[in-house]
Known about the structure:
Elements lengths: L2 E5 L5 H13 L6 E3 L13 E9 L3 E2 L3 H8 L8 E7 L11 H9 L5 E3 L2 E2 L16 E2 L2 E3 L8 H12 L1
Helix pairs in contact: 1-4
Amino acid sequence: MKTGIFYGSTTGATAEIARQIAKAMGVEEKDIHDVAHTSPARLADYDLIVAGTSTWGHGEVQDDWYDFLDGAEALDLSGKRIAIFGEGDETMSDTFCAGMSVLRRRLEGTGAAFTGEFPAGTYSFNTSAALLPDGNMVGLALDNVNHANLSPERIEQWVKTLG
């Protein structure tokens, strides 16, 4: 299974998480892509697509994702899987990691299957568009502002679910 990691990062925090996930998964540097400098067509090169964003404003993805998603939405990714991760701050209690939901919603029409839901129970927030009715987040939610010490263990747990 060939894995590619795609991320958008303004401050470098999401880029660092992408590298940590890559290390935990054994993904080579050449398969880690900043969406600001990558064609959406590269998604087709991978069986498992790991997509990450921070959350900005009122629950939006990082800015570099918008143009990338415009192109990605036109792709047929049938037979591929997508796992999403997000960087957020649980004190933004109405939008915690909501950018992940934007990635999922925008990529749903590609035919790819989604994987990697993660329990939200250890965080404290009011609501999030990334929260599913079953109490899981649409992907791995990380808060390196308030809980950086928990991120390595969460990454390891999540990676094991991606097979």
